[in-house]
Structure formats: structure tokens, C-alpha cells
Write a structure and sequence with these properties.
The longest helix is centred in the last third of the chain and has 18 residues. This protein is 77% helix and 0% strand. It has 19 helices and no strands.
Length: 334
């Protein structure tokens, strides 16, 4: 008597549990058994593709997704997954085609809109991203990620008032979002509302004391509103926790310039230039502050590094060489 085959649903559900638990190899085994028991069900193929993608086997992942689509050509979830895989494979045009296909297959499936939006945001293609975000908000006007992205787009394209509305909507849904409070602070600053910008950045730092963007922007606002001591503390704190980030050094240098402490300003500008050696404008500023601090010879190594790391065809090299000659000439005269 032939043995009754195992129930494919049991294998499928076992695969889901193993996948959720991080047991990828066991999940793969279960999905394969589910496929063997019922080759006409697209769901095990889709989840098998996810499992293979998680272990970096993109060829097998693609094969599994394509088989699922062969069985059900209009499955938005699988189309979305294959689009993401195509993007990882360096095929953005194919990814866009598949995301669009997923959207046309199920116009209410938000994940495809979000993924194509993320793709365009990654390359700063804000005009291309905006229609997809707006579509998400038509479907779900309280979607946190969509409101945040729409806020970023409108903030960066000089529509700060609209940006504020989007960030506030996102925060009404979930107020424990330090990055969104930081973005809200930037939008308030965009309309000149320094008081509410400071409150927003302070809340961002309260929720995440390591949010470098909020720390830096809050320090700048403190400096601009005359709270020099608080600004100095924040910039120094930022440097302590993120010594490889150039911007706290730059902002601290700006603070010391405003207070006439040119030696301290020079020290921080040198740190900044060490991290971003090809920033010509701030190399020039470093040169000027070194002169005010009577430490002109100290900027020669930074200028030499600029010359060494620049493209030999960079016309700015001649300017820096002239600066070096000027420094050496001044020192000889002295």
C-alpha cells in the first residue's frame, strides 16, 4: 500500500516558522519539501527565494521567484521581491519595470510603492520618488515612512511648511522617532522658526543621544542664538562619540572664530581638513585662520596633502602651490 504523502501546508508553515526564527537552512529544506508535495503552489517558491536571498545565493533566489511568477504572474509580493533582487544585481531598469508591474497587479500593495520610492531617494531623484509617496499617502495617510519621506522631499525642495505637516503627522502616529524629530527641526529652521527647531532637535537628542545630525544641528542653532557654552559642549560631545565625522570639528572651529579664539579654531579646522582633504574652500579658510593665529607654517602639510591627493589635472593645484610659496616666503622674511 502506497504511503500517503505529507501535507504540503505543514511543510510550508514549518518553513515560515524556521525562517522567522533565523534557521535559514532548515527553512530551505521545508520549502523544498512543500514544493515536492505540491509543485503548483507559488507560495513555497516565493519564500524559498527569500531564504536563498538571505544567505546570498541570488541565482537560486531568482530561480525560485521566477518559478513563483510563472505559476502566478500577478503576485505583487513575489514581483516586489524579484524587483529588489534585480536592484541588488545592479539592474535598476529591470527593478523599476517589476515594481511597476507589481503596482499594476495590486494598486493597494504599499510595499512596492515604498521600495521604488527608496530606490529613487537613494539616488536623490526626488521628482521621480514624489508621485509614488503621494500614492502611498492616498492609500494610508498616516503611514510613518511615507510621511517622513514626503517631509524630506518637500523640505529639500523649499516647501518647508508642507514638510512640517508631514513630519508632524508621522510623529502623531509614533512619537518615538528621533530621526523624524531631527527632520522636523530642519524644516522649522527652513521657515526661520528657531525656537521650535531647537525644541525638535532637543527631543531628537533626548530620544537618541547618539543622533549625530541632531547633535550637530542643535549645536549650530545654539551658536547662532548666542548660547555659546551649550554649543561648545554639544560639538565637543559629538567629537567624543564620532571622532571620524568631520562636521563637529568644522562647526566648533566656526564657534571659536566667532569668539576670536583662532588657535582653537585652527586646531579644529586641521582635524576637518584631515578628514576631507580636498575641500578647497575650507583649506583656504584654514590658511586664513592660521595666519590670524600666527601659525601659518602648520598648514603646509595640509596643502601638500591636497596636492598629492588631487587629480594632477586639477587646476586648483597651482593656487595651493602659490599659497605654499607664500607661507615659506613669509617665514623666510620673519
Amino acid at each position: 500500500m502506497q504511503e500517503k504523502p505529507e501535507n504540503p501546508i505543514d511543510y510550508f508553515e514549518l518553513g515560515i516558522r524556521e525562517l522567522d526564527s533565523g534557521n535559514i537552512e532548515k527553512a530551505i529544506e521545508a520549502f523544498i519539501k512543500a514544493i515536492e508535495a505540491d509543485p503548483g503552489d507559488p507560495r513555497p517558491y516565493n519564500n524559498l527565494g527569500i531564504a536563498y536571498e538571505l544567505i546570498g545565493n541570488f541565482d537560486k533566489a531568482r530561480e525560485a521567484y521566477e518559478k513563483a511568477i510563472e505559476i502566478n504572474p500577478h503576485n505583487s509580493s513575489t514581483l516586489n521581491n524579484l524587483a529588489g533582487l534585480s536592484l541588488l544585481d545592479g539592474q535598476p531598469v529591470e527593478a523599476v519595470r517589476l515594481y511597476e508591474y507589481a503596482i499594476s497587479s495590486d494598486p493597494l500593495y504599499i510595499e512596492s510603492y515604498l521600495n521604488i520610492t527608496r530606490m529613487f531617494m537613494e539616488i536623490n531623484a526626488f521628482k521621480m520618488a514624489e508621485p509614488y509617496v503621494r500614492k502611498i499617502l492616498e492609500i494610508d495617510n498616516e503611514n510613518i515612512e511615507a510621511n517622513n519621506i514626503m517631509g524630506i522631499i518637500t523640505s529639500l525642495t523649499d516647501r518647508s511648511e508642507e514638510a512640517i505637516n508631514h513630519f508632524q503627522t508621522a510623529l502623531k502616529t509614533d512619537a518615538n522617532q528621533p530621526a523624524i524629530f531631527s527632520n522636523l527641526g530642519t524644516a522649522f529652521r527652513g521657515i526661520g522658526d528657531e525656537k521650535r527647531a531647537i525644541l525638535s532637535f532637543e527631543k531628537a537628542v533626548e530620544l537618541n543621544p547618539y543622533n549625530i545630525t541632531a547633535l550637530n544641528n542643535l549645536g549650530v542653532l545654539y551658536r547662532e542664538t548666542g548660547n555659546i557654552e551649550k554649543a561648545e559642549h554639544l560639538f565637543c560631545h559629538s567629537i567624543d562619540i564620532f571622532p571620524e565625522n568631520p562636521f563637529p570639528y568644522y562647526n566648533l572651529a566656526e564657534l571659536y572664530i566667532t569668539t576670536g579664539q583662532y588657535g582653537k579654531a585652527l586646531d579644529n579646522l586641521k582635524h576637518y581638513i584631515a578628514l576631507i582633504p580636498l575641500d578647497m574652500d575650507n583649506l583656504f579658510k584654514t590658511f586664513g585662520i592660521a595666519r590670524l593665529a600666527d601659525r601659518l607654517e602648520e598648514v603646509v602639510p595640509e596643502m601638500d596633502r591636497f596636492i598629492k591627493e588631487s587629480n594632477p589635472k586639477d587646476t586648483r593645484i597651482k593656487t595651493v602651490e602659490l599659497w605654499i610659496k607664500m607661507v615659506l616666503g613669509i617665514n623666510k622674511t620673519v
